[in-house]
Amino acid sequence: MSLKGKIVFVTGASAGIGAATALAFAAEGSRLLLAARRASKLAEVAARCLDHGAQAVHSIDLDVRDHRAVQQSIDDLPAEWSEIDILVNNAGLSRGLEKLYTGKIQDWEEMIDTNIKGLLYVTRAVVPGMVVRNRGHVINLGSTAGEITYPNGAVYCATKAAERSINDGLRQDVLGTHVRVTSVDPGMVETEFSMVRFHGDTERAAKVYKGIKPLTAEDVADVIVWAASRPAHVNIARVLLTPVQQANSLLFSRDE
Ligand code: NDP
Ligand code: 8X3
Asked: 61: helix, coil or strand?
């Protein structure tokens, strides 16, 4: 299926997987609707998308945790941007890596509000239009963390397990329409993710990837574009991808 001219809405497009996904769709000649909180980073990605071949780019300064702002920004879209073809529900984060009984409630709330509630708010605002038009594709970012919970990560893993349920539930709820629903579930990807998790502790973040060649954001973007470009009658339900040195969220083979 050609992605040329399709309107692709990517949340969390200012960095990492979201930015790489925007660039990958740009190279297909799509029209990019980009959202994140850091407007200056988003502007840089928008400019690069145009250089990469995007037909057009429209950026929205948006915090997905604010459900009124999410609905308003979809309602306020200029007419030429309102018929979203593909939604990439990518905005997300982890905060902290510690035992549940010592975890910080603020960290939990940020993860739950962003990864679960934010994803729901954006889905709720965008999917009704897809159902009315009887076409569209929602691609959610899951994780190996949603499959197998790892120590000290219970709340982040729970948010990704929730993503999995929401992904499967939405696919059932749009049955009878031509809307497609996919979860792309990566293992370890080197992005700003660990820096955000450890609140800017670069040394701790670097240790996560020690002795491993992690996935790149581009590897994940590649899978997202692949899922979106299958023929219209094909729905990819879920793709699980890891670095070759990772078997699942618990088992790694690190170089000495
Ligand atoms: P990054 O930290 O590099 O990027 C996260 C993106 O999400 C940023 O663009 C950030 O933008 C945006 N974001 C965070 N909070 C909000 C918010 N409240 N509203 C709007 N945008 C927000 O991480 P990744 O690219 O690695 O992560 C992207 C997704 O992939 C996440 O859902 C993550 O859980 C998932 N994932 C990541 C893996 C990894 O190992 N890196 C593996 C498996 C899944 P801004 O700060 O400008 O708002
Ligand atoms: C991100 C991958 O293993 O750091 O979802 O949780 S992991």
From this structure: strand
